[in-house]
Protein: YmdB family metallophosphoesterase
Organism: Futiania mangrovi
Amino acid sequence: MRLVYLGDIVGRAGRDAVVERAGEIRRRLDADLLIVNGENAAGGFGITQKICEDLYAAGVDVISTGNHVWDQRELLDYIDSDPRLIRPINFPAGTPGRGATMVESARGHQVLVINAMGRIFMDPLDDPFAGVEEQLALCRLRESVDAIVVDIHAEASSEKMAMGHFCDGRASFVVGSHSHVPTADAQILPGGTAYQTDAGMCGDYDSVIGMEKTEPLNRFTRKIAQGRFAPAMGEATVCGVAVETDPATGLAVRVAPIRLGGRLAETFPDWAAQGRAAAE
Amino acid sequence: MRLVYLGDIVGRAGRDAVVERAGEIRRRLDADLLIVNGENAAGGFGITQKICEDLYAAGVDVISTGNHVWDQRELLDYIDSDPRLIRPINFPAGTPGRGATMVESARGHQVLVINAMGRIFMDPLDDPFAGVEEQLALCRLRESVDAIVVDIHAEASSEKMAMGHFCDGRASFVVGSHSHVPTADAQILPGGTAYQTDAGMCGDYDSVIGMEKTEPLNRFTRKIAQGRFAPAMGEATVCGVAVETDPATGLAVRVAPIRLGGRLAETFPDWAAQGRAAAE
Amino acid sequence: MRLVYLGDIVGRAGRDAVVERAGEIRRRLDADLLIVNGENAAGGFGITQKICEDLYAAGVDVISTGNHVWDQRELLDYIDSDPRLIRPINFPAGTPGRGATMVESARGHQVLVINAMGRIFMDPLDDPFAGVEEQLALCRLRESVDAIVVDIHAEASSEKMAMGHFCDGRASFVVGSHSHVPTADAQILPGGTAYQTDAGMCGDYDSVIGMEKTEPLNRFTRKIAQGRFAPAMGEATVCGVAVETDPATGLAVRVAPIRLGGRLAETFPDWAAQGRAAAE
Amino acid sequence: MRLVYLGDIVGRAGRDAVVERAGEIRRRLDADLLIVNGENAAGGFGITQKICEDLYAAGVDVISTGNHVWDQRELLDYIDSDPRLIRPINFPAGTPGRGATMVESARGHQVLVINAMGRIFMDPLDDPFAGVEEQLALCRLRESVDAIVVDIHAEASSEKMAMGHFCDGRASFVVGSHSHVPTADAQILPGGTAYQTDAGMCGDYDSVIGMEKTEPLNRFTRKIAQGRFAPAMGEATVCGVAVETDPATGLAVRVAPIRLGGRLAETFPDWAAQGRAAAE
Ligand SMILES: [Fe+2]
Ligand SMILES: [Fe+2]
Ligand SMILES: [Fe+2]
Ligand SMILES: [Fe+2]
Ligand SMILES: [Fe+2]
Ligand SMILES: [Fe+2]
Ligand SMILES: [Fe+2]
Ligand SMILES: [Fe+2]
């Protein structure tokens, strides 16, 4: 099975690039499922129903989020109606929406996608490890599901790595988001789980984490806001990770980064055009 | 001019790998200067005189550090005597050691190396932007120096990116450290400064930021220490960034990541074996 | 019913003062229950079985703790055996010890004491509001218990005040700890719950939060540790809060601070020697 | 000399109470100088020229601030024109306004008032200890000035206590602000400096740090904003500290808290109506 995850979409530049590239990415990889993190899609802050619909229309299967999930207040009314849009699982009981979703791929495989938020240097939430554990205990690879993907939205690289090892052998793929910078540490962990610390953003990399750089620079140096943060509007780089799983185990056999367009060095899995490693 | 920076050396695995690979890296790139971040070289916590000497003997020219700089208390007595070992410039006035150093390359070029520490999610220090500004104001590319390298040791990707843009056009190369994960965003910023958000660690990537993973996992999930943190001892990946500057401007013409050994996908600048982009 | 709570005991100075004064405080107030926070009793860091026994012998009924609870590792083996020693309730499931305890006063009243830890500017734990809610839902004033006391061990005054209002009308008394400074805001909240943002420490106030002041001052100004933190050894001020409840409701009718000895202005409830406000 | 400091004014309730009580406080104490912290005076967020003028008209001599100083953007244009309005001294060089001011009392004494901001759990700024040191080095008690007051606006009680000891013997009075809760630790430090960790707010104490409690409680428990923060409008308690200095030394001979009105137990210096301890 081939799973693709694209990191935090930042603003219009990021949205346009993902909408434009989603079909191509699916086709080149013969991908079974496309997940994107959409927490910054609406002008850098949150996401709307309209944007979700545009992303689904472009070929996205699941949208995960993070600390910016509620920035657009309309989402509170919408999120319960959309089974493919998830928010971090470790919000308090009673929070609108869901923290995990089971989706069926075009070929009929069941995939569980979990979204969790780290707590180091972030707003206090419930324990992300306990939240993920509960899902993994309910839902075992090969038994009740064909693949499991965990989006760990976190600041500290230590917490993301710890989540990778925590899920190792029990999830197909653990990927980080939130730093808005792709990491170059894609690997298959010893237990068979594909891992990358951060997928990076889909946004303009001539910026400060996707935002037009003047105001962030002003705030770092002068400590007084001059204006609002606005997404940078240069050409976005679409950043993500592709994973191929072994249908016999649900674990990963291949993992590779994706970077298309914009300022960063392009890369695409060199196995994209090859046949699958194991017959399905 | 060709400059190489290798990120945080973690423990013996990281030290051994750097000592073993330093000569090869210099030779393959025909490098003029090799800088390493050594803040975690001594068992994960700090660095000692002996380790500095071993690194210099292996071909390292400059050692930068970060928040762990004082973990080995002997360094307080040693640091003033070593002009090639630097600590973040934004410690209070009167702090032992220096925050920047001017070194001469084998070919006689002058290079200013500055070490600064971010403040977001980190211990309070003086303003890193003001500290770097003071150096850049004193020391201009092409006027008093052939190249300027800034190691911004910081947690938040936003602060590192902001430092990149802050120095853009005034430094040859701004590189982040501290996250212990290499980022895949090497680029030359619009003003000509080479930039990568984090060089990554030189350490074992089957770990939590270079430390044996059991105890970090225990602390994340149980919130009670069971033991001490110890560096992971598997084969290290040497992670860093190579930059080539234009001698006419001191700005960057090429930038590419380095990853050698261990668990991560290897990469080396494809221009390493080529002649320099501009005659020196 | 009369309940007394004394804040964080810091080191030997604090222990000696509490042991010496506990009987006097009980007697002057004709107190039914004496609770102390002991998280810094052992040299500033944690507490031991021996110290617990000394405190019980001096007249203490319940010992609560906070973020320093595990600093003395022997406590992990001891805590399960001591029903009067509590640790914050919002540690992960499976943590040794208990986060709440039901104790019987000398006169046969049942008192529930809950310990919770804040999360703002502190280590991530489970939700303290949810943890307290669970206890309050199980155990209602006048129905199953005569009084309920909540020790909210937290850094941010906002989180402590919020806990006060959260419990208002459902607990007899909510008191903060951890800042090591007594606040002067004792009041009965609109719903009948006695509240004080912080009880203050039992320790030497010629110090930095109870620790000998030289090393803290050194670290604030030089940012390099010179030595270890050690408790200040001058005469301690015993700091706490006394509450009288109405037996008919379990809610508070009187609240007043206690400060005895050392450098702070002394105070003791002016109603201590009076009869109780309502017959029991 | 008699100096009065009133803590953070929160919203209209706090403003009205200070305007109403300022004259009475001055008269009862025969005060020479009245300082207030105004950082939350404008609806909880910042302060305006109009509010400054109202406070001066009511008898206030100096207004200090804190992290909310720039919440009302008009202040950026106004602050340079008002020598009696100060902002934290450890903002970057070039920041509008001043961090310290020399004022003359009605009786012709010179008083230096310094405002500094802590960094623990707060936004990164320059070193508050170095900023205060620079002022104290320039301006010595009895030599160039009759009294020195330091407002240390900080979250951590440790940082405030450390500032007290740092200034001990060199300033007349160090007082904390920002926690919005008065502390009960007024004392004269060993070197002669009056100290209280926090003056408390001038605001409604049936609230969460002065704000109407519903929304803060909602955010603590549900982690999703429902509305905006608005100041609580119940009767405010005016909270502050009074200090009497020895004219021969500029150091403190008396210190006592002030709490008037609202929900907290009232207190006023019992020496207010007495003659001064030492002839001026
Ligand atoms: Fe994001
Ligand atoms: Fe995020
Ligand atoms: Fe490091
Ligand atoms: Fe570091
Ligand atoms: Fe404590
Ligand atoms: Fe504590
Ligand atoms: Fe305030
Ligand atoms: Fe404040």
